[in-house]
Write a structure and sequence with these properties.
The chain contains 4 helices and 3 strands; from the N terminus they run H-E-E-H-H-E-H. By secondary structure, it is of the alpha+beta class. The protein has a single domain, classed as 2-Layer Sandwich (GMP Synthetase, Chain A, domain 3). Strands 1-2-3 form a 3-stranded mixed β-sheet.
Length: 98
């Protein structure tokens, strides 16, 4: 699948670049779990519909869990428009990840 910018590449690559540019994470794992959801709602042949993110960023300091999730979901709004169906998210500060 083409990325959210329409310039080729994968949706995963686009999401990773977007999160790195906006949040400068100390750690970022973007895992495509689409194969685990074959036959479920939102799944498509070729995948790139279900992702798991583990992100550690100072940008989350002082924010609640809900605020962190809203921030990430907002940054990835274009990905949802381009076919991302589900996002499992773990968003921590560097002190929480230590």
């Amino acid at each position: 699948m083409a990325d959210g910018t329409g310039e080729g590449g994968t949706l995963r690559d686009w999401m990773e670049a977007r999160l790195r540019a906006e949040l400068a994470p100390a750690r970022l794992d973007v895992i495509d779990e689409s194969h685990l959801h074959a036959g479920h709602a939102g799944a498509r042949p070729g995948g790139e519909t279900h992702y798991r993110l583990d992100i550690v960023a100072a940008a989350f300091e002082g924010r609640s869990r809900v605020e962190r999730h809203r921030l990430v979901n907002g940054l990835l709004d274009e990905a949802f428009k381009r076919g991302l169906h589900a996002l499992a998210l773990r968003a921590r500060t560097p002190s929480e990840a230590a």
